[in-house]
Write a structure and sequence with these properties.
By secondary structure, this protein is α/β, with parallel strands linked by helices. The protein has one domain (about 10-240): Rossmann fold, CATH 3.40.50.720. The chain is built from 7 helices and 9 strands; from the N terminus they run βαβαβαβαβαββαβαβ. The chain has helices at about 15-30, 40-55, 70-80, 105-130, 150-170, 195-205, 215-225, and strands spanning about 10, 30-35, 60, 85-90, 135-140, 180-185, 185-190, 215, 235-240. It is globular, with a radius of gyration of 17 Å. The chain starts with 7 loop residues before the first strand and ends in a 6-residue tail after the last strand.
Amino acid sequence: MTSLTGKVAIVTGASRGIGRAIAQRLAKDGASLVINYGRSADEAKELVSIIEANNGQALAVQADMSSVADIRRLFQETIDKFGQLDILVNNAGIGKVAAIAEVTESDFDAVFAVNVRGVLFAMQEAAKRMNNNGRIVYISSSTTVYPQVGMAVYGASKAAPKHFTEVLAQELGERGITVNSVVPGPTSPGMFDHMPPEMHKAAAASSPFGRIGQAEDIADVVAFLVSEEARWITGQHIVANGGAKI
């Protein structure tokens, strides 16, 4: 794939898990990285140090992705530091496991604030500020494909931005900007780590590869989607779950 040298990327929720792996991969490919984090300041600063030690450029920016003001500041700090934006990876998200009968208003509001509102307004900022021929990637969830008990609110919150993805791809196509989503299955490190051991076994058994995904598996798919070679792919949802049915 072509180098990302000269490109500037924001990865939200990048201090840990899938977001961290994505940031490291894009930095390896030559992009300058903005590492967004909510509360994990130490992990974010450590990641910046790792990227810089490998001759890359990175900036850690704290921003609450449920806050539109914080989202706008994140993008402004990116422009102030690097002068441009070429790639946005919307990875930040929060989960809540609860049966529909047990979901509270605060649960619903918290999950949708980050997973839906946060993604929408990050996409909005990207639409306003991104260079032509840029790349936007949304990290969705296989719960939007395979509904699971206890995951109604989370799955619904991850489904709405898939629709945003399809619409924004049409709105930005004339500028050469592609907009796609990646749909991971059970992946570690990530939210799935908090699931009980029996779910880990079931998820691994559901894949013909006999394992759950690794964060690097998802990062490699994202790296392709933000490359020049993916210029003819837009408005699509790439399922990256090792063929699992869960």
